[in-house]
Amino acid sequence: MLRVEIPRDIYQQGQTTMLHFVLSLLGAGIVVMVVAMLLLEKSVLFPLSRLSRSVSDIGESGDLSARLTVGGRDELSSLGSEINRMLGTMEKSNKALRESEEHYSALVGSLTDAVFKIKGRAIDWCNDRAEGIYGYRKDELVGRNPNILFPVDVNPPEFIGEVSAAIKERGYFHGTAKVKRKDGDIIYIEYSISKIPGREPMELVSVARDVTERKESEAKLNKTMAELARSNAELEQFAYVASHDLQEPLRMVASYTQLLARRYKDKLDADADEFIGYAVDGATRMQQLINDLLAYSRVGTRGKPFEPTDCEEVLNKALVNLQVAIAENSAVVTHDQMPTVKADATQMIQLFQNLIGNAVKFHGDNKPEVHVGAKRNCSDWIFSVKDNGIGIDPKYHERIFLIFQRLNGRKEYPGTGIGLTICRKIVDRHKGRIWVESQPGQGSTFYFTIPDGEGGKS
User: Fold this and answer.
1) 3-class secondary structure per residue, the chain
2) 92 pLDDT band (50/70/90 cuts)?
């Protein structure tokens, strides 16, 4: 085996050269790394840091109209462009939100009602109108227990429980409560309270309207209506008593004047016959007037309970009562099929009798022709009595329903002027209405409505 020996000095020189090479290579690597880091900082880290500071500044200032400076087409530039796009979107959304809040504030501020936001067990916010209604400043209301809106000392003890139960069950409450203002005055407030869904603790919005004037007006109206009802009852009672008590002495006067007429007719002079005729006519008309007044007073005081009433049967009974007048005037009366309604049968007979009787009485040169109709209209039945008589001037269409109002002379068309007044009172008692459509010389059609009630069969 061949063995080559390298001189020691050459060997050491080679090791030194190798070490220098490795160290040179390591130094070159370090230099490259430093240069690379410098380049990375300049091209990536520094722009990224600047981008981060810009975003942070925008976030702190809240100025969503600011934009990042973007240059180039690298990834950082794309990131900056995307951030600018997001800022633009946020700016538009923020502007829309701000405009919405301004509109909402303007709307709530212009309301004549007080508006409260209640959070948990305290008033969280209220509008300016709350000061005017409750008399407290806004800072005196915010933070207070909402019970100040409907204090228990001026409302029934169970009222708060009713409000809480309604909100819990239905999510809202609507009602009226008394409120004691800061100055001690008691006012009436109409509340609409709604629960805001999904809020914890529970949040409510309450709208409060001052209805004190309306409540006071209602109280005055109710008092006036009660007094009017009492007065009407007294007048009806007076009319009944007066007409009832007058009947006997008047019957005696009428009987004796009629006896005088029969016994002494043509036995005294012409003046005596004329005077006796006046007395008999006056007594007869007075009897009729008292009977009509008695019938008028009985509409409200002697009415029967409403029951299902067959108007076909009612109409037939009215026609039987009028058969003499119908025959004397050769009148023709026709009718549609009549329905069944909930009514006072006796008063319905009188109503038909008065209207048909007038149609037969107030005829012109032609024979009376009368038609009774009935048609359904929603929840009412509309009845009509149409004739071919003398007609009525439109300017008198309301007047004819007033008591003692006559448009014609007694000699031509006898009567007391109470018949149509009784008709209106009967219709009013049945919660209907009555009116006429007519022209002079063209006949008349009287209409009246009766609520369907529990009837409705035709």
Assistant:
1) CCCCCCCHHHHHHHHHHHHHHHHHHHHHHHHHHHHHHHHHHHHHHHHHHHHHHHHHHHHHHCCCCCCCCCCCCCHHHHHHHHHHHHHHHHHHHHHHHHHHHHHHHHHHHHCCCEEEEEECCEEEEECCHHHHHHCCCHHHHCCCCHHHHCCCCCCCCCHHHHHHHHHHHHCEEEEEEEEECCCCCEEEEEEEEEEECCCCCCEEEEEEEECHHHHHHHHHHHHHHHHHHHHHHHHHHHHHHHHHHHHHHHHHHHHHHHHHHHHHCCCCCHHHHHHHHHHHHHHHHHHHHHHHHHHHHHHHHCCCCCEEEEHHHHHHHHHHHCHHHHHHCCCEEEECCCCEEEECHHHHHHHHHHHHHHHHHCCCCCCCEEEEEEEEECCEEEEEEEECCCCCCHHHCCHHHCCCCCCCCCCCCCCCCCHHHHHHHHHHHCCCCEEEEECCCCCEEEEEEEECCCCCCC
2) confident
